[in-house]
């Protein structure tokens, strides 16, 4: 049984581009989100992670499951997988880089190679549904 890193991600699209973040000192872009704390639900963990990274509040009641994706974990030993459970949600506030985040941007499908392998799968799913260009 392979090791699996359980993560959550917030899918937010503006002008048919996907919101992504780059952590300080890193060159790879990621979809905002992160790991849950013990006993947190998906919603609790996602709200906390997005608040920490982007300083916005996800709106209760607006969360919608988008999909679950699994791939080799970026920068980890072969066989360590990341399982990304993705949600969409509306938010309140102004998106800005916070905590460990160096930069935010909205990436088109053409820039999917700048992201991790699991994010490639998410970009593919969004493109297939014509949600991003």
UniProtKB/TrEMBL annotation:
Protein name as it appears in the record: NUDIX domain-containing protein
Superkingdom as given in the UniProt entry: Bacteria
CDD domains hit by this protein: NUDIX_Hydrolase
GO function terms (MF aspect): bis(5'-nucleosyl)-tetraphosphatase (asymmetrical) activity
Claim: Hydrolase is one of the keywords in the record: yes
Keyword tags: Hydrolase
Pfam families on file: NUDIX
């Amino acid at each position: 049984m392979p090791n699996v890193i359980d993560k959550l991600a917030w899918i937010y699209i503006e002008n048919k581009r996907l919101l992504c973040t780059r952590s300080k000192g890193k060159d790879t872009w990621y979809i905002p989100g992160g790991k849950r704390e013990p006993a947190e639900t998906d919603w609790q963990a996602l709200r906390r992670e997005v608040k920490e990274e982007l300083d916005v509040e996800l709106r209760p009641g607006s969360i919608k499951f988008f999909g679950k994706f699994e791939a080799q974990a970026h920068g980890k030993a072969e066989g360590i997988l990341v399982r990304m459970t993705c949600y969409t949600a509306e938010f309140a506030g102004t998106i800005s880089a916070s905590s460990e985040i160096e930069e935010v941007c909205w990436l088109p499908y053409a820039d999917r190679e700048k992201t991790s392998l699991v994010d490639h799968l998410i970009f593919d799913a969004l493109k297939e549904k014509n949600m991003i260009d």
